[in-house]
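hey can u check if this looks right to u? its 161 residues, i copy pasted from the old doc so theres a chance i mangled smth
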Amino acid sequence: MINEWDRLLGAVVQSLRAQVAPHLANETAGVQLNAAIYILNNLRLQGGWSNALQHSQVAAQQQLFATLRTTGLGPEVEPPSAAVSTDPLAQRKRADEAIVALIDQLASVPAARRDPAFETAHRALMAYLRESVALDCAATARSMMKEMSGSGSESLIDDPA
């Protein structure tokens, strides 16, 4: 089913680019078409039946919490119950709430009291946030600017990193 969803939306996007875009004389219509393509690409990436992305996000959160347990900092996050572990969205939401509490806790530590445990927790949080952004970016269509600029313009827009 996932493959069918991806193929269907991919074919619609390809048809819009190949058969509709070349015939648009109005710039406003072109912008609207690119917006529709952007939305379809996001649906294509996020709308399938797979919950692999959520499982990856939850795994990254669990890694953060494992590191935090070694520091003694951060909220206590219990392993998910059997009911919650079958619902990765509910599990991610619970963990997100704990991460917000961790950010608040770390932000309230005065500079003079930032010991090695604080530094370890801070580094683990930053690593988690980087991984979380990378996972989210992997499941998001390329930017509207790239979409509207067309092929060959990627080097003008891409981040150097």
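The two ends are 35 Å apart (CA to CA).
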